[in-house]
Please model this.
Amino acid sequence: MAKLKELLKNRLSADEVNKIKYSYDIIGDIAVINDLPWGMKSKAKLIAEAIKNTHKRLKVIAKKVGPTSGEERIRPVKVVLGEKRTETIHIENGFRFKLDINKVYFSPRLGAEHLRIINQIKPYEEVYDLFAGVGPFAIPAAKKAKKVIAIDINPAACNYLKENALLNKVSDKIEIYCCDCRKVIEKEKFYNCADRVIMNLPMHAGEFLDVAFKVAKKGAIIHCYFFLHEKDMFKLAEDKLYNEAKKAGREVKILEERKCGQLSPRIWRCVIDFEVLN
Ligand SMILES: C[S@@+](CC[C@H](N)C(=O)[O-])C[C@H]1O[C@@H](n2cnc3c(N)ncnc32)[C@H](O)[C@@H]1O
Model:
């Protein structure tokens, strides 16, 4: 991804350029400028123009106006240049995702991680995506797997998920539930039926491991995401995992632990892939 620093070196002072810590994301035809350092907020329009001039296909330049928050994990943005809209279609791993960046969670930085999981899915699998969002795991999974159960608590995400299932012609392979995943698994009695469980809610996924253990069959693979500090990377998450497994009477084997993105200077989005052995 091109860096703002490079784009702006002829338009801002060297000192101002040095203050720019983070870059921007491109989602469909929208660029979102991430946190600008204090004192640089008034330069948002100048930065937006530089970005727009560099990527001719961009129609909207927005800036982040608050942190990612709430159980829907929404990052509020405001349009600073171009068309006054926040809905777009983003293409990732050959699939099309319609979404409104002000109504749902989506990060274009997770494309490689989405693909890493998708590549592991086998045709016989029943895949449960407990925090599906607009479907960047669930939609491609439905192309490959026997069946996908996709759950999200945010009605806007569920509406886009349905639309994206149609857009990508996988509606016949995906069941969508708009509710708390814990309630769905209980109500539908989805017990011991998943070959694979995806849990991309790093802030709270550990609190839903009991749900994952209910839905997972023997031999299931679970991908559980966490935000972890560099200091004790994986230790706390492993402790939580082994503790929850013990409570559920399940044995687990960790297959892989990896970082898949940086949240802030010392905090990383991490994933633990593990197998349920019994
Ligand atoms: C970090 S986003 C991940 C979305 C998607 N899997 C992705 O990779 O882009 C987490 C999603 O979980 C949803 N969510 C939060 N709590 C939930 C719950 N208890 N049950 C179901 N979905 C939930 C949010 O609405 C959000 O869309």
Observations:
- Residues 71-73, 105-106, 110, 131-133, 136-137, 151-154, 157, 180-181, 200-201 surround S-adenosylmethionine (CB under 6 Å).
